[in-house]
Each structure stands twice: as structure tokens, then as C-alpha cells.
Amino acid sequence: MIRGKTANKASQPRYRVIADALLDEIRTGRFAVGTLIPGELDLMTSHDASRHTVREALRVLEDMGMVERRRGRGTVVLSQDARPSFVQMVHAPSELFSYPENSRFRVLQADDIKLNRALAGELACQAGSEWTRITGLRTMADSGAPICWSDVYVVPEYASIAQRLGRSGRPVYELIAETFGETVQRVQVTIYAGQLEERKAKALGVAPGTASLKLCRRYEGANGRVFEVSVAEHPAGNFSYSFEFTRGWQTANHWSWSQ
Amino acid sequence: MIRGKTANKASQPRYRVIADALLDEIRTGRFAVGTLIPGELDLMTSHDASRHTVREALRVLEDMGMVERRRGRGTVVLSQDARPSFVQMVHAPSELFSYPENSRFRVLQADDIKLNRALAGELACQAGSEWTRITGLRTMADSGAPICWSDVYVVPEYASIAQRLGRSGRPVYELIAETFGETVQRVQVTIYAGQLEERKAKALGVAPGTASLKLCRRYEGANGRVFEVSVAEHPAGNFSYSFEFTRGWQTANHWSWSQ
DNA sequence: TAGTGGTCTAGACCACTTC
DNA sequence: AAGTGGTCTAGACCACTAA
């Protein structure tokens, strides 16, 4: 069969039509989850298309996370529903909280501590484990207006990072990554409400007992170890955290990247 | 030039080698951000490969979000660095806040209002616009323990949804989507601290003035219209919001989906 | 109109998995 | 050994964009 110019102008590309047909067969259960769908050769004949076109169609399904393809084995159905999902993307953990570019961190205190039960619970770390705590205030560089009270807990071997804070407004995790060669592999963020105790309220220039937004961030390095936990406390009213999810597709990261 | 069997066994595929070469030229600034890289025909001759192979290489860059391809125009460099990014994925907005499965919503009041300046600011909606406000309390189904105070604002035409609340613990947006055929296209979440006023504190069984975690969620439908905004207020101490980012790649959603 | 990327065909060899 | 998906070539027509 020879196909000349496309008959209808507003038509979808051929591989898209094939992909939709396959998708439909998966949805209706014709191709069950966990089973193999016909091989490329079969699809070529059944859809009367070249192998390239069939492969392009299968690539669509793969990118959607609907199937998994394995050389020598075949194409396995992973999911019956094309699951739309909401995706949020940040390029670096710093974007989790874009502090004003021109902020500064002033170290008030640095000491080595053992976590008591309560603190261990708040930080989701082991009670009794040893950390270096760096306490300070983050302020605007120009006006000096306080942004938040911060308690930064780092593993003792990174304690010297305290001396490097304050020079720049950059987040602590970034300085650690740079200085000690850590790579942030995972960030876990917990947000909750609190109430400012006297010392913190005073430093922030608000009344004691003022409501606060607390953010606990746990940074996990390449070896799976949490190397920093920070708790930032913002007075109510001058800070909110906002993010957005957009409908998208779960995209399988099926290719790996060297370096 | 005829290429026989691959000479070295552990070699990368050809399209990968070409992709790496291009990536390198982007990193070193040979191909600047914002400019076009050579066309496919050029790359075919310069890398001595077929068009298919060259295109496969370019697809790698595109999937990485490094370049954007446009028919008739060319391939534009978007970024100089292969940006690893942190990706969070949720399958439905309900996962943004997985209320306990067995929660119930009790409607206390429902009325039509016009947003005043202050409220419009908090909801990020137009002052003076008309909404139906459904006020209520979300509680645990079994113990009856209060979870949060909720003010749900929906566009007036969906006001009848108030009658359907309470039957199930499901989120309001989900009921609206089902009942009126809306499709949630985007969700914007803002988190901030507040202080519970008397009426709310009483309903939640805490002292007036207790700190609270407030969550404002804006749901946007397929036509780009925000059809629901909800504000949930949780007393401090019994609620925290936690999420996690894992290092991954920015995957460009370069294909669109019908339906 | 020339050049770009998008789609498609026909045919080939290869690596891997399963039997 | 047979079948699968992975890679690659050579050649073609198309739709779109910009000069």
C-alpha cells in the first residue's frame, strides 16, 4: 500500500493514531496490565506502518509511563489508566524558598549538642545523636529587616561552615555542598505553625507569642545521609510559602545521564 | 563510509556520542544560549551520521530541556548547564493534603458574598467579585476530633455543591469536578501562619489566639478560570505539611495530549 | 523561496532474553 | 535458535518559518 500525500489535512500523525489505538486497547483491558503487547513486527502488519512509525508510537506510551520496553523481552503494560499527574519542578532546593537575593545570615551562636527527645522528634532525627547547631538571624542586606530565625543543624564534621556564613546570602546547604563536596540528593520539607518564644520574638522585633510559620528542611546527601537539618521560623504576616502544580504527565526517567 | 560491526564492544551508541559532543559545545559556550545550533543536515555531515541518528541525539538534548526545537526555525539552546532539578510528583491535588481517609466536612454556613479588599488579597482574587462561601469544619469521622476550619469559595453557579458536602470525606474540588465536569488544570497553594479568632478557636476546641497554619488553595479549571478557592486553618501542633523533592531531570513535556 | 524540523518508508545488523 | 527491542542507514515528502 502506497500512501501519497495525506488525505485529510487536519489529521494527526500516524504514530499518534497508532498510539491512541494502543492506549485504547490498554484502557479497555484488551491488553492487560502486566502482560506483553504485540511485538513491533506484529504492530507493523496490524497497523500497516513501518517499524519506525510503530516505534514512535510505542515511545509515546513509554514517555507516558504506560509501558516498559525491554530488549529481548517485549513491551509490558505498566498501568491501565493514563494517569495525569500534577508536577512541580524546582531547579534547586534554594528555589523551595527563594529568600530575597540580598539577604544575610548573622550567626548568633554555634554549639555542639545532643538531641533530646523533643528536638529529635521535631527534626525527625535520632534522639541522642550529635549535631552542631548554628543559630542565627536572616535579615535583608540593605534594610536589615529580619526575615526569620534559623536553627541550622549540621553533622559535626561540617561545623566549620559556621565561619563561612554571613558573607553571602546563599543558603547553607549550598555552601556545604560547595565546601565539602556534598551533593543534595533529596530534600524533605515540613511546614507547621508555631509561636515565637521571647528571645526569638525580640530578635525579630515582634511581640512574644506571635504566631509563626516554621519550616524544617532536611538535606540528604549522595550517600543517603542527612547532613543538614534547618528550622526557619517566620513571624506571621510577613511570610508565606506558595507553589503551584500543573497538570502534566508522569514522565518516566528511563534514560540515565553520565556525570 | 561504511560502518561494519561496532569495533569496541563497550561503546556508547552513536547518537549518545553525538549528544555528548553537542552538550559539550553548549557547556563550553561554543553554542551560546539563545542561539541556534547547526541544522540536522549540517550535523549529519559534521558527525558523519544519518539523519535519524542525529535526530535521536537532538531528542536527548530536548528531553533534558537543554534545547527547544521548532519546525521552520531551528534548534535553540535554552540552557548552558545540564540542570538537574528536583521533582515532586503527585497524582491528584488531593495528595497535596491527604486528609485522613475518614474525615467529614460539616457545613456551618453558606452565603453569597462580594470580596472586600482584604479578603480579595488573601484569596488572590478580584475585589468585588462574587462568590459563594461555604464555611465549615472538617472532623475525623470516628472520633469527631476537629481537623481544621474551612472557608470554601466557589463560583456562584456551583453553589449547589454545598448540599453534597458532608456525605463523604472527599475534597470539595473533587466533588465539583465530578458534578460539574470541571477538570483541574492547575492548583496553586499558599501556606502561611495565622492566629485563630474566637469563633474558629471555639469550634476547634483551642484557646482563642492560638497560632494556626493556614492553607489557601486555588483550583483552576480547563478554561483557565479559578472555580474554587479554599482556605483551611489548622491549629498549631496537630498539623504539619510535609513533602519531598528528589533529584531528577527536568523533563520537557513537549508533546500534548488529546482529551 | 530556501532551509528547518516532522513524519514516514524499506531494509539492515546488533544485543539481549527466553526456550 | 527464535524473537524481542536498540541502533543505524538512505532516501523521501511534508509543514512551517523567515528572508
**Going across the major beta sheet of chain A, what is the strand order?**
5-6-7-10-9-8
Sheet with most strands of chain A: 6 strands, antiparallel
Supply the number of helical segments of chain A. 6
User: So what's the overall shape of chain A?
Assistant: elongated
| Radius of gyration of chain A, taken over Cα atoms and rounded to an integer in Å | 27 Å
The multimeric state of the shown protein is: homodimer
**Stretches of chain A where pLDDT falls below 50 for ≥5 residues?**
1-10, 250-259
Greatest interface (CB-CB under 8 A), with counts per chain: A-B, 54 and 54 residues
Instruction: Give the total of beta strands of chain A.
Output: 11
> What structural class do the secondary elements of chain A suggest?
alpha+beta
Average predicted confidence as pLDDT of chain A: 82
